[in-house]
Amino acid sequence: MEADAVKRGGGKRKKPDxxxxxxxxxxxxxxxxxxxxxxxxxxxxxxxxxxxKPAAIPRPARETVTKAIxxxxxxxxxxxxxxxxxxxxxCMAQHALEGRAxxxxxxxxxxxxxxxxxxxxxxxxxxxxx
Length: 130
Known about the structure:
The chain is mostly helical. It has one domain (13-129). It is built from six helices and no strands. Helix 4 (65-75) packs antiparallel against helix 5, helix 4 packs parallel to helix 6 and helix 5 runs antiparallel to helix 6 (102-129).
């Protein structure tokens, strides 16, 4: 009978935050970390994709090229990754195959993402003017 009340929206219904905490408590520590990382990702993506502005995720002092790409993808959720793939892959190859310094490659990657972001803004303005 209580289950019927819950289905109809009455009775002892769990709040979403309580349900999430209950599920979180059932997970192993490694899975909890993954859930937190995913929630942070969704939070950044949701908050930044709506206004079209990049997130201000600071660059760590010692960052790998792979982690920089992840950071930049989170910073620029509004960009289409497929359009960035060729240039990002080229930068990664310069580091991995040619031995180019990570800091230089990361500088280039930041410029690539920023340029694509600016191109997207200009495209949106032109579409509005047309």
